[in-house]
Amino acid sequence: MRAAAASGAIALGLVLFLGFLLIVAVAGSGAGRPTPGLPGVVCAPPGADPAQLVEGIGPEQVSNAGLIVATGVEMGVPQHGWVVALATAMQESNLQNLANSNVPESLELPNQGVGSDHDSVGLFQQREAGWGDVATRMDPRQSARLFYDALLQVPGWESLPVTRAAQLVQVSAFPDAYAKWEQSAATLAGALEGVECGPQTGPTPAADPQIQRVVDRAMSQQGQPYVWGGGDANGPTGGGFDCSGLMVYAFAEIGIGVPHQTQAIWNSFQPAITDQAAIQPGDMVLFSSNGQPGGIHHVGLYLGNGQMLHAPETGDVVKVEPDIWSNTYYSQEFIGAVRATNPTAA
């Protein structure tokens, strides 16, 4: 009996140890080569192999990603929802269907590894409270359906940044962690659905070479965290940028001083451009909560084709918004754009 007990203890210890190693591997898998594709766009390079797109994501994990996307398509969930779901599963389980050493039933079901976080199991690390029985949570399609059902209950989720939408579903102890997976998720979703990146979906080169330098400088900061009050002419401060700080940094490339405050940006570079068709790459697009200059609260750098580079909000990163004119939030809040090189600007 003592020998059997000792053997059982060793086996349990081995399971826990392996679970610990797996969790460490998952947590450390965020670093790697840049993800191909176009920033903020659900698309993949022509002929891309999904299993070769994201470092650390192999064929088995891509199969799980395919089930997540397919479930979203079946439920009529828009592309943004696929990206939220994939980014969540990438962060929670590295797209592996994990059992849990604390949930004996899960060890008897098909799995791709063993974790030990409370009673969390499956691709989304869903817990018993609020998510259902073990078999459902350990089924990739069923767990994805549970995730989408919860996401669709979040008011205005379609306009929320990926990290915020994911957090409202998951209620994670690490709410900012999902952001780093957004581009990888968008590229992987594009590859799975056969959506190829084309030149018409990318930023439009600026007509003025000087302004292209501004755009290039700003684009180089993609992935920097949002930090309230962050950024100056030399780069990120406090660990990142806020929306106007990114503009300060971008235009310092050509010696133009931009105020570090959105309403001051509006006032400094009048006249404003309110016709969307007249806005050019390198213009600063501004957004107001009440349609008046006094309600201006956000600014981004226009890239053409409806795309905008910006630092959205706490918990997110500097990134490209793929189509502001089709986004209900941005299209309704848009008040106008200003051009820093306008000869009549103050």
Automatic annotation (TrEMBL):
BP GO terms, sorted: proteolysis
Name the PROSITE patterns for this protein: NLPC_P60
Q: Where is the NlpC/P60 domain?
A: 208-341
InterPro entries hit by this protein:
NLP_P60_dom (IPR000064), Papain-like_cys_pep_sf (IPR038765), PG_Endopeptidase_C40 (IPR051794)
One molecular function GO term is: cysteine-type peptidase activity
Q: Which keywords does this Swiss-Prot/TrEMBL entry list?
A: Hydrolase, Protease, Thiol protease
The family line of this record is:
Belongs to the peptidase C40 family.
Tell me what this protein is called.
Cell wall-associated hydrolase, NlpC family
| Originating organism | Pseudonocardia ammonioxydans
